Amino acid sequence: MNETRTPDSRRRSERSRRAIYDAALALVSETGYARTTIEGIAARAGVGKQTIYRWWPSKAAVLMEAFLDLADQAADGEHVFPDTGDLAADLRLVLRATVDEMNDPVHERPTRALAAEGIVDADLGARFVEKLLEPPLQLYIGRLRSAQAAGEIRPGIDLRTAVELFVGPLTHRWLLRTLPLTHAYADTLVDYALNGLAPRD
Amino acid sequence: MNETRTPDSRRRSERSRRAIYDAALALVSETGYARTTIEGIAARAGVGKQTIYRWWPSKAAVLMEAFLDLADQAADGEHVFPDTGDLAADLRLVLRATVDEMNDPVHERPTRALAAEGIVDADLGARFVEKLLEPPLQLYIGRLRSAQAAGEIRPGIDLRTAVELFVGPLTHRWLLRTLPLTHAYADTLVDYALNGLAPRD
């Protein structure tokens, strides 16, 4: 970072950064991850290639940041899981929001392209999981842990596996497009899965 | 079909067909679905391009048949779901077999390449789901239906959603490679999900 930058140059930098993210995500949506290039991003963002190389070491780095920024926007900067004391209601809220995100083309197209590339490229897939997937999964686990402490989930349940009962079916339906992804589906998943984790009477 | 073929020519045809399937799946594994071509398959199988065009109208058609053949082999030609009367044991058996298949490179690599392409190409994805995914899911549903009739699954459970509690998490873990896919994981999934579908006492 250049400590002597003026407010104007910071604004210009911020504008360029935003243009680069937008261009990167648009290109990934249109041509796929593999065919997106630094040159293409620069041309579409209206910046020089060197501007991108000054800020990021590689295409993978700029794309990962663009995806993190997209995820941040979808989460409205919130990185907490709701905890109203009503576990089912909290899970429905989060799963419904995920459904909305998965159905929103702005989010769906680039994320789908990234997921597809991660499925065949194990290294990229591992970064995708570490940076983009695991952090939200850990928020679920935190919420399930407090539910387990409150006796709403039976002792001995492995929470890492439990969280997959919610996100696994949703992702399956989304990625493979088997059937429509709706709020009603999210609610049913919460009902069935939570019943599976509840204490046995 | 040529009714006047001799046994020798039928054997030659069968050998060619097998070579074409093998070449198609190997190419998809190595270069991805999009970059696999009829020319490439013919060269690798050691047959003329016209042999392929005589039997299949398109690359998509030959690849879909190669995948159907692969799935048939994995299922050992069996297209029934076990029904021993013990629902949990039957589900564990099938999910463990799916884990083994997903961990077998012969099956994994081409299926992963096909799934990745289907994720970004909606038309291919729809064919993949219709031909390869829905038929086994319907077998699950049949087994769950008889369990529901026997009172082991509570009335009102939507069986199409229920089946996703088993295959969704498994596919999520496989495609995204979040954590190892093991028999123990399959067993835990059956335990949690089946508990979620069981009658409430």
TrEMBL record, chains A, B:
In Swiss-Prot or TrEMBL terms, this protein is called: TetR/AcrR family transcriptional regulator
Keywords of the record: DNA-binding, Transcription, Transcription regulation
**Lineage: superkingdom:** Bacteria
Q: List residues of the HTH tetR-type domain.
A: 14-74
Q: Which SUPFAM superfamilies match?
A: Homeodomain-like, Tetracyclin repressor-like, C-terminal domain
- Record feature DNA-binding region, as residue ranges: 37-56
